[in-house]
Amino acid sequence: METTIANTATPQFVSQYNVFTDANGEQYTKDSLLTGIVNTTKLSGGNGAFPEGGELDPGLFTRNPKGWNIQAACQWLHSHAQIGSSGWCARYVRQAIEAGGLSTAGRPNWAWKYIHYLPTIGFKFIGKVSRNQQFTPQPGDIAVYQKGTNPNVPGHICMWTGMEWASDFRQRNMIVYQATNTAYLFRFAA
Predict the structure, then answer these.
(1) Which one of 11, 34, 48, 134 is least enclosed by Cβ atoms within 10 Å?
(2) CA 64 to CA 73: how far, in whole Å?
(3) What residue ranges define each of the domains in the chain, with the CATH number in brackets?
(4) Could you read off the pLDDT of 52-81 as tens digits, one per residue?
């Protein structure tokens, strides 16, 4: 039996045997959807990693009981990143996260919105890193930033693979937008 849930405020899901398929063809289990909802709910209202005002506190996150295989995630991203951008940075980084064994249920569509999403699945916000700041990334570190200060564009997300910053393409630097000087840096908290 197939069930369709229709609501203009949310995507439509088609369910068959507790597997849900969204409008983009992505599939989720009932458990992964519920985990995403619970993790997001825990952090709402300024009681979790995001105090009132929406700014992140370094070091706060929701511990993920599942481990993350950083090596598998980095290998996936390194082998799938292209030479030039296709405009799908969030999709590629999300698929790398999933290749490492984490669910991304409840994820946002735009890259810059991962700033508030990553702590809900176990990534600790380390702090903001400027374009000229010297630091040593660790494999699996994720950088997220906006293009300038415009919240109406998707922004960018990328991961350090141990060899390079990569997203949908292999990057020369962590920050690829000239109008951007600062990125939010995240590291999975084992």
Answers:
(1) 134
(2) 16
(3) 55-188 (3.90.1720.10)
(4) 335 666 666 788 878 899 999 999 999 999
